[in-house]
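Suppose you are handed a protein chain with no further information: no name, no annotation, nothing but its sequence. What can you learn? This example shows the usual starting point.
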Amino acid sequence: MKKSSIIVLTVVAVIALLAVIYRAVNNAPSASLTANEQVVQVLTDGGCASCHSMAPDLPFYAHFPVIKGMINKHVQEGYATFDILPFMRTMKDESVPNEVDLNKVEQCIIDGSMPMKEYYLVHWGSSITPEKRDRMLAAIKSIRARYFHNPLAAPEFVNEPVRPLPDSIAYHPQKAALGKLLYHDTRLSADGTVSCATCHGLNTAGVDNKRYSEGIKGQLGGVNAPTVYNACFNFAQFWDGRAETLAEQAGGPPLNPVEMGCQSFDEIVARLSEDKAFVKDFIKVYPEGLSQATITDAISEFEKTLVTPNSAFDRYLKGEKSAMTDEQIAGYNLFKQYSCATCHAGASMGGLSYELMGQRANYFEDRELTQKSGLTDGDNGRWAQTKVERDRYRFKTPTLRNVALTYPYYHDGSVETLNQAITMMAKYQVGQELSPEEAQKIEAFLNALTGEYEGKTLTNSNMNK
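A reasonable first move is to predict its three-dimensional structure. Written in structure tokens, the prediction is:
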């Protein structure tokens, strides 16, 4: 046999052997496994925790020259973007996963971005075959239906990463009525000049449209005031998540020396106690009387009423196809295509996770160059509470509901227009340069997120000035 023929046959044999090995190590999970078990198997076989965890078990060659730098970079970026271990634990013990985590895994499967080619060229069992893809998407659909039931959506939209807002959530009417009075009461501030509504006006989309809000004595806060509308859907309150509940959040500003400046709730109680008519009404609902606990509870009950349903997008998801324009529908598709819906998820389209500001480019370095604005305490984000270095520059994702009315944008209030916020988010969070046409379509979609409050489309009186 000729030497060339031997070489050809050898190559063919090697390719065939590699194909056999590839199929052997890259099987899709068995259909007999539960949805959770299938997800766990694919993520485990894929070695996802090798990059998306704090202390991955790296192979021996990860310490080789040249390769070491590349692997360390991938691990650092992977962990910063997504710590997969909490999600894996929920899959294994069949507890409720974080909705954003579920969306992130799904999006990677849809767009084929993970695992990276550099990884699966060495780890053959990690690549996502068509069969694996189908099994994973079906499993995630099943998990979403189990934990994030979506009864308001039309059948074709029940598996979307976002859901229509409900018309309302449960609250105590009498307590909410008292909370509304307290929300607008300047007696909660030391000098009687600032109320909750000062920075979170109901007629200005739940914000004040200032970069930094003004507290007593003209002092400015360190971060942009987020909207109070739909705050009841947040998994935590404040940009850094320092309050777990609405009531806990309501207790913060009155005691903040920059915002409302009170030394304690005792002085607030003393001022309110002078209003005999108010106290009489208050005790009818709270027999235990005025205190920090009852005051903040009442305010939290009122904030539960600040739901803004029935936006054009809500109606579209419920099956009213004409509720959104073709441009807005195209914008929604781009919104999902560019992974925006992974973090801006759920009914409120945000408020469900902490995300790093600047996953694909350094936002703070660029801000320093363009705005001559150095780092502030407000830029530390979640780190301020945890002191865990991974949490530095990580913020609770804001809701996008009514976002067309809640300018300026970002935690630092540095971006004036929605279009600019969109293009910058694509750059810093997704690593994409949007075309003007794409940005316009996404902006049109975001305008469809303006909902109703008390039966009327939400407006912002500042926009008419």
